[in-house]
Amino acid sequence: MRTLQSQSTDIYTDYVRDWKEKGGKVLGYACVATPVELIEAAGILPYRIKAFGHPDTELGDAYLARFNCRFCRSCLQLGLEGTYDFLDGLIETNGCDHLRGMFENWQYVKKYEFFHYLKVPHFLREDSLDYFTEEIQLMRRAMAEHFGTEISDDKLREAVDAYDEVFDRLKRLYALREKVPPVISGAEVMRLICTGSSMMAGDFSALLDEVLAEKEKAQPIPYKARLMIMGSATDEVDLIEDIESGGALIAADALCYGSRSFWRREGESGDPARLLAERYLGNLFCPRMFTEYDKRRDYILDTARRADVDGAIITYNKFCDLHGVEAVSLRMDLEKAGIPVLVLEKDYGSKADTGRIKTRVQAFLERLGK
Amino acid sequence: MPAQVEIRPYEGLINRVYEIFSIVDKLPENMSDEEVEGIMHVLPAELAKTMRAFMVPRVRSVSLKFLGLVKKWLDGAHEAKRTGKKVLLVPFNFPPEIVHCFENAWPITSEVLSTLGVVALEGQGERYWDYAMGLGLPDFACSANMIEVGSALTEADFAPDAVISDCFASCDINSKTHEFLARYLDIPLLFLEKTVDNSERGIKQYYKYFFRLIEDMEEFLGEKLDEERMRMVVENANRASELYWELWDLHKFSPCPVPNIFSLNTYGVRYTMWGTEEAVEVMREMVDLCKQRLAKGLYPAEAEVARSLWTYTSYYFDMGGLFNWMEENGITHLGDGLDLIFPQPIDTASRESMITGMAEVARNMPMTRQMGASSMSVQWLDDITWASRELDANCCIYCGHHSCKQTWSAASVVRAELMKRSKIPTLILQGDSWIKRMTPITVLQETIDEFVKNVVKRREVQARATG
Question: What is the complex's ipTM, to 2 decimals?
Answer without folding.
Answer: 0.95
